[in-house]
């Protein structure tokens, strides 16, 4: 568990994670209430990976594609997904079959269809600031989490 006092702390932690990510396929689920800081965390990751400019919330498009240093990065926001089956029409297998990095907000909405992530990031409101918990689902993610807590 890590405490994030303000938005900058969220961006800084995301940047710290960015340099630890493997170049192979890796998927991250971001959970937390509305406004908990999921997109902020994604913005920190994308910027640390070389993206400059705005980060659109793909609330209506469901997914936004970035190519950063030859790497495909997919940012999903599944908040408005009506049914997990809709993901099949998006061709989600492709997103996980390459060396892509996928960042998925509201993964609960894709339950049953979305594959298990490598890493789950949970953001929670505190009286002020946020608290973040990392849950690794792969050996690679476990190593990353150890380094993040140091
Ligand atoms: N550690 C933090 N402490 C306080 N405020 C923060 C922190 N991290 C992010 N915020 C602020 O929280 C607000 C909402 O953030 P963000 O849009 O990232 O949430 P979200 O989880 O993506 O919401 P949604 O579920 O609507 O997509 C922003 O104004 C951001 O500046
Ligand atoms: Mg968001």
From TrEMBL:
* Localization of this protein: Cytoplasm
Write one Gene Ontology MF term: metal ion binding
Does this entry carry the keyword Metal-binding? yes
Q: A cellular component term (GO) from this record?
A: cytoplasm
Q: Which InterPro entries match?
A: P-loop_NTPase, T6A_TsaE
| Any one GO BP annotation for this protein | tRNA threonylcarbamoyladenosine modification
One Pfam assignment? TsaE
Q: What keywords are annotated for this sequence in UniProt?
A: ATP-binding, Cytoplasm, Magnesium, Metal-binding, Nucleotide-binding, tRNA processing
Q: Which family is this protein grouped under?
A: Belongs to the TsaE family.
Instruction: Note the NCBIfam families from the entry.
Output: T6A_YjeE
Name by which UniProt lists this protein = tRNA threonylcarbamoyladenosine biosynthesis protein TsaE
Its source organism is Methylophaga muralis
The gene coding this protein:
tsaE
């Amino acid at each position: 568990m890590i405490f994030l006092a303000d938005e900058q702390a969220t961006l800084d932690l995301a940047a710290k994670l960015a340099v630890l990510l493997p170049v192979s396929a890796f998927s991250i689920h971001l959970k937390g209430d509305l406004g908990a800081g999921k997109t902020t965390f994604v913005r920190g990751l994308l910027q640390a990976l070389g993206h400059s400019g705005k980060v659109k919330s793909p609330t209506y498009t469901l997914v936004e594609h970035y190519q950063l240093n030859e790497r495909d990065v997919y940012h999903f926001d599944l908040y408005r997904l009506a049914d997990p089956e809709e993901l099949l029409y998006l061709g989600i297998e492709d997103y996980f079959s390459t060396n892509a990095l996928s960042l998925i907000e509201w993964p609960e909405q894709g339950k049953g269809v979305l594959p298990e992530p490598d890493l789950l990031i949970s953001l929670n409101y505190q009286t002020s600031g946020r608290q973040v918990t990392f849950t690794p689902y792969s050996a690679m993610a476990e190593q990353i989490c150890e380094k993040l807590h140091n």
